[in-house]
C-alpha cells in the first residue's frame, strides 16, 4: 500500500499534470538595516529618492525608519524573483550615498532605545495608524528587538493543483475549503520539520553585546563586543527578548483555518492587564492602538503564516475569512551574511522542495503534546543545533538530529525529483545534495562558518558584519542597473510620493474615529 506522499507525487508526476509544478509562485521580502559608513545605525530619514515608504510597493520600511524592507513581485521561477530582488538592491544602494545595507540578521551596535527612530508614514490616517502601531511595539517589546532583520519567503502552489488532489482523494469539501485545509496541513508539517531549516540556513550564532542592554542572559563571551553560543544556529529565532510578553500564551491551533482565525481574533480583542495599565494614550498622545494581547494580527510573531492578498482597506484576517488561504509566508529565515541578497537560488530551490514535501506529506492534526515538542525541537536547534549527538523528540521518542535530518532529506528528495522533472533540470537535486553535505559536516553550515571566521580573523561580530556590508555594497555598485530598470524604479518612487501626497490631501478624518473603525472591522468579525 503506497503512502499518501507517493500517491500524490505519482498523480502530479503524470505527464498531463507535471506542468502544474512550473506554476508555483515565489515572492521574497527582505528586511535590512541602513547603517552609516562606520556600521552605526543610520539616524537619517528614509531616503526620499526611494519614494514613499507608505505607498511604494517594492521599497518600504519595517519597524524603524532605518529598517528597509524590499518586496519582490510574485514570479513562477525563483531565479526571476531573485533577479527582481537584486535590482531593488542595486537601485537602493545607488541612492544611499555613504550609507550601507547591514549584511546579517542581528543588528549593528544600536544607540539608546530613545534614539532608535520609529518608521514614519506621513500625516494620512493610515500613515498615522502605521506609526502608532509601531509605537505600541516599542512599548510592548522595546525598540531593540524590532531592529532584527529577516527574510520572508512567500510560496504558493497553483490553484488548479488542489481540485486535482481533491478529486483523486474523494474529499467532499468545496474547492476553497479544501485548498485552505491543505495549506493549513502544510503549516502543521512546517511546524514539525522547520527545525531542519534552522540547522541548514540559520546564520545568527553571535550578536553585538549592546543588543542585550545589560539584561541577564545565558550567552558566552567571544570578545569584549561579541556574545554567542558555541552550537547555536539562529539566536534571532531563539527566545532572546520575547520571554515576558502577552504572546507567550498565544499558540494558535493550526488544526483548521477557523481555529487559527478564532485564536487570532481572540488575541486582537482580549485586553492584557499590563497593556491596559499603560493605556492607549499618554498626555493626549497615542502610544498603542489598543491594550489587547496583540494590537493587530501582524503583531503575532510566528515562523510561518497563512496568507491571502488583501483588497484596499481590508485586513489580513478578513481576507482569509472571506476567500481562504492563497499562499504561505515563511518567516524564520535568517539573512545569510555571505550572500549579497541574503539568500540565493540554491536555498530557494531547496525551500521549494521542502514546502512541497510539507504540502503533500500526510499531516494529521497536532495535539498539545506534539505542538510542545515541535516548539521545543525548534528552540533546541536554534540554540544548540550543531552540538554533536544532539537529540530531538519525534512522536514522543528521542532521535538523533542527524538521523532525522537524513530521513527527511530522503523524503524531500522525492519532491525535488518531481520538481526537476517538471522543469527539465537537476537544480532541486543539486540543492538537496548541498544540504546533505551540511548534515554530514556541520562546519559547512552558515552558523558554523560565521563563528569560524570571527575566531580566525579575531573580528568582533560588528567588524565582520561591517566588512561584509562593504563587500556587498561594492558588489552592487559594480553592477549598475540597466537604464530602463533605473527609469522604472525612479518612476515608482515619484508615483509613490504623489500617491502619499494625494492621501494626505483628502478631507481630514478624526484619527480617534478612524482607529475605532479599524478596531471595529475585526471585532465585528468575532460575532459571526
TrEMBL record:
Domain Glutamate--cysteine ligase: 10-381
The keyword ATP-binding is assigned to this record: yes
Transmembrane segments: none
Catalytic reaction(s) noted: L-cysteine + L-glutamate + ATP = gamma-L-glutamyl-L-cysteine + ADP + phosphate + H(+)
GO molecular function, one term: glutamate-cysteine ligase activity
UniProt keyword terms in alphabetical order: ATP-binding, Glutathione biosynthesis, Ligase, Nucleotide-binding
BP GO terms, sorted: glutathione biosynthetic process
Pfam assignment, any one: Glu_cys_ligase
E.C. no: 6.3.2.2
GO CC annotation terms, alphabetical: cytosol
Pathway(s) it belongs to: Sulfur metabolism; glutathione biosynthesis; glutathione from L-cysteine and L-glutamate: step 1/2
Family: Belongs to the glutamate--cysteine ligase type 1 family. Type 1 subfamily.
HAMAP family per UniProt: Glu_cys_ligase
The name this protein goes by in its record: Glutamate--cysteine ligase
Amino acid at each position: 500500500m503506497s503512502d499518501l506522499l507517493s500517491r500524490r507525487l505519482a498523480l502530479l508526476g503524470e505527464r498531463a499534470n507535471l506542468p502544474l509544478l512550473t506554476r508555483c509562485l515565489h515572492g521574497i521580502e527582505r528586511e535590512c538595516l541602513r547603517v552609516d559608513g562606520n556600521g552605526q545605525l543610520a539616524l537619517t530619514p528614509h531616503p526620499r529618492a526611494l519614494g514613499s515608504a507608505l505607498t511604494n510597493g517594492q521599497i518600504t520600511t519595517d519597524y524603524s525608519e532605518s529598517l528597509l524592507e524590499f518586496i519582490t513581485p510574485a514570479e513562477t521561477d525563483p531565479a526571476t524573483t531573485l533577479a527582481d530582488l537584486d535590482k531593488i538592491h542595486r537601485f537602493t544602494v545607488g541612492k544611499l550615498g555613504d550609507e550601507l545595507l547591514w549584511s546579517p540578521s542581528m543588528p549593528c551596535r544600536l544607540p539608546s532605545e530613545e534614539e532608535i527612530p520609529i518608521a514614519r508614514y506621513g500625516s494620512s490616517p493610515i500613515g498615522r495608524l502605521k506609526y502608532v502601531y509601531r509605537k505600541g511595539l516599542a512599548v510592548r517589546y522595546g525598540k531593540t528587538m524590532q531592529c532584527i532583520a529577516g527574510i520572508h519567503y512567500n510560496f504558493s502552489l497553483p490553484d488548479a493543483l488542489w481540485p486535482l488532489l481533491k478529486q483523486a482523494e474523494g474529499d467532499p469539501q468545496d474547492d476553497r475549503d479544501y485548498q485552505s485545509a491543505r495549506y493549513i496541513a502544510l503549516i502543521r508539517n512546517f511546524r514539525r520539520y522547520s527545525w531542519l531549516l534552522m540547522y541548514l540556513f540559520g546564520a545568527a550564532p553571535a550578536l553585538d553585546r549592546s543588543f542585550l542592554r545589560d539584561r541577564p542572559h545565558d550567552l558566552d563571551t567571544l570578545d569584549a563586543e561579541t556574545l554567542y553560543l558555541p552550537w547555536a544556529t539562529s539566536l534571532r529565532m531563539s527566545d532572546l527578548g520575547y520571554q515576558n510578553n502577552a504572546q507567550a500564551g498565544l499558540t494558535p491551533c493550526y488544526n483548521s483555518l477557523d481555529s487559527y482565525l478564532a485564536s487570532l481574533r481572540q488575541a486582537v480583542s482580549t485586553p492584557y492587564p499590563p497593556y491596559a495599565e499603560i493605556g492607549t494614550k499618554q498626555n493626549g498622545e497615542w502610544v498603542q492602538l489598543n491594550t489587547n494581547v496583540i494590537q493587530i494580527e501582524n503583531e503575532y510573531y510566528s515562523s510561518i503564516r497563512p496568507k491571502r492578498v488583501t483588497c484596499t482597506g481590508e485586513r489580513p484576517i478578513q481576507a482569509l475569512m472571506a476567500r481562504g488561504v492563497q499562499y504561505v509566508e515563511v518567516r524564520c529565515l535568517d539573512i545569510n551574511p555571505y550572500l549579497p541578497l541574503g539568500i540565493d537560488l540554491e536555498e530557494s530551490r531547496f525551500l521549494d522542495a521542502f514546502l512541497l514535501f510539507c504540502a503533500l506529506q500526510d499531516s494529521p492534526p497536532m495535539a498539545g503534546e506534539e505542538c510542545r515538542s515541535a516548539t521545543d525541537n525548534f528552540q533546541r536547534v536554534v540554540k544548540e543545533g550543531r552540538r554533536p549527538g544532539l537529540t530531538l523528540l519525534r512522536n514522543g521518542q528521542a532521535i538523533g538530529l542527524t538521523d532525522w535530518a537524513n530521513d527527511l532529506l530522503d523524503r524531500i528528495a522525492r519532491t525535488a525529483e518531481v520538481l526537476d522533472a517538471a522543469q527539465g533540470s537537476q537544480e532541486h537535486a543539486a540543492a538537496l545534495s548541498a544540504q546533505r553535505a551540511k548534515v554530514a559536516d556541520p562546519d559547512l553550515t552558515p552558523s558554523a562558518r560565521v563563528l569560524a571566521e570571527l575566531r580566525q580573523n579575531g573580528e568582533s561580530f560588528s567588524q565582520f558584519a561591517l566588512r561584509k556590508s562593504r563587500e556587498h555594497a561594492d558588489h552592487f555598485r559594480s553592477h549598475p542597473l540597466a537604464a530602463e530598470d533605473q527609469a522604472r524604479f525612479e518612476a515608482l518612487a515619484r508615483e509613490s510620493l504623489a500617491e502619499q501626497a494625494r492621501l494626505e490631501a483628502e478631507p481630514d478624518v478624526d484619527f480617534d474615529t478612524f482607529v475605532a473603525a479599524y478596531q471595529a472591522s475585526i471585532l465585528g468579525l468575532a460575532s459571526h
